[in-house]
Automatic annotation (TrEMBL):
<feature type="coiled-coil region">
    <location>
        <begin position="43"/>
        <end position="70"/>
    </location>
</feature>
<dbReference type="GO" id="GO:0016020">
    <property type="term" value="C:membrane"/>
</dbReference>
<protein>
    <recommendedName>
        <fullName>TolC family protein</fullName>
    </recommendedName>
</protein>
<dbReference type="GO" id="GO:0015562">
    <property type="term" value="F:efflux transmembrane transporter activity"/>
</dbReference>
<keyword id="KW-0175">Coiled coil</keyword>
Length: 230
C-alpha cells in the first residue's frame, strides 16, 4: 500500500498558564511523519497472483468477446443473404403462376376445365404475395441485425456466396480444450485460487513502521520518533 503522511500537534495545552500556546510547554510538539503498512509476505504474493490472473482473465474474455462479435456478424450476414436469395426466387414463382393462369384460361376456353378452376391461380398468387410480404419483413429485420455489427454498410448490396466451412469431426474432441471459452477458465481458476490464498493470509498479522519528526518551542530541542507495530 501507499505510505501515509502524518501531520498533527501533540500534547497541546488547554488548561494552566500555558493554555492555547503552541510553543510554551516543553511537551507541545508540531509533528510531521510518514507511516508505511507492510502486509505479510504471503498476502503480498497472493495479491500479485490475483492481479496477474485478473489480467490473463480479462485478455481471455476479450478474445472470446471478439470471436462472439465475428460469429454474430457472420450469422447476421448469412441471414440477410438467405433472405435476399429467397426474395429473388419469387420472380420465378410469379412467372410460373402467370403461366399456370394462362394454361387454365386456355383449358377453360377449350372446354377442358371448369370456370371455377380459374380461382386456383388467383389463390396461388395471393399466397405468394402474402409470403413475399412476410419475407420483406424478414429482410428488414435481417438488415437491422446486420447493421448492428457493421453499421451503414449493411444497406449496401450483399456480394459473395455462402461460406463453405469444412467439418473435421475427428479433430473436435482433440481440440476441445483449446476452445476460447474453455481456455478462459484457466486464468479464472488461478484467480479464484489466489483469492483463497489471500484470504488465508489474512490470518497472519501485518506490521507497519512510522517515522515522526516533532518540532518544539525554541527553548526546547526537537525530537524524532520511530515506531514499529504488529
Amino acid at each position: 500500500p501507499d505510505p501515509k503522511l502524518l501531520l498533527g500537534v501533540q500534547n497541546y495545552p488547554v488548561g494552566g498558564p500555558d493554555r492555547w500556546s503552541i510553543d510554551q510547554d516543553f511537551m507541545t510538539m508540531q509533528m510531521v511523519g510518514v507511516r508505511q503498512e507492510m502486509p505479510n509476505s504471503d498476502k503480498r504474493k497472493a495479491r500479485i497472483e490475483v492481479a496477474d490472473a485478473a489480467v490473463e482473465r480479462a485478455a481471455a474474455q476479450r478474445r472470446v468477446e471478439r470471436l462472439n462479435v465475428r460469429q454474430s456478424t457472420a450469422l447476421a450476414w448469412i441471414s440477410s443473404y438467405s433472405v435476399e436469395r429467397k426474395d429473388a426466387l419469387f420472380q420465378d414463382f410469379y412467372k410460373e403462376n402467370r403461366l399456370l393462369s394462362d394454361t387454365v384460361r386456355a383449358q377453360i376456353a377449350g372446354g377442358r376445365a371448369q370456370p371455377a378452376d380459374a380461382v386456383t391461380p388467383k389463390q396461388e398468387a395471393a399466397r405468394l404475395a402474402e409470403q413475399q410480404d412476410d419475407l420483406i419483413q424478414q429482410r428488414r429485420q435481417a438488415r437491422a441485425a446486420l447493421k448492428r455489427w457493421i453499421g451503414p454498410a449493411a444497406n449496401d448490396e450483399l456480394v459473395g456466396r455462402l461460406p463453405e466451412w469444412s467439418v473435421d469431426t475427428s479433430g473436435y474432441s482433440h481440440n476441445l480444450q483449446h476452445h476460447p471459452e474453455l481456455a478462459a477458465f484457466a486464468p479464472m481458476t488461478r484467480e479464484a485460487q489466489a483469492k483463497v490464498r489471500e484470504a488465508v493470509s489474512e490470518k497472519q498479522s501485518d506490521w507497519s513502521w512510522e517515522l515522526d519528526y516533532q518540532h518544539r518551542g525554541r527553548a526546547f530541542g526537537d525530537m524524532v520518533s520511530v515506531q514499529l507495530s504488529w
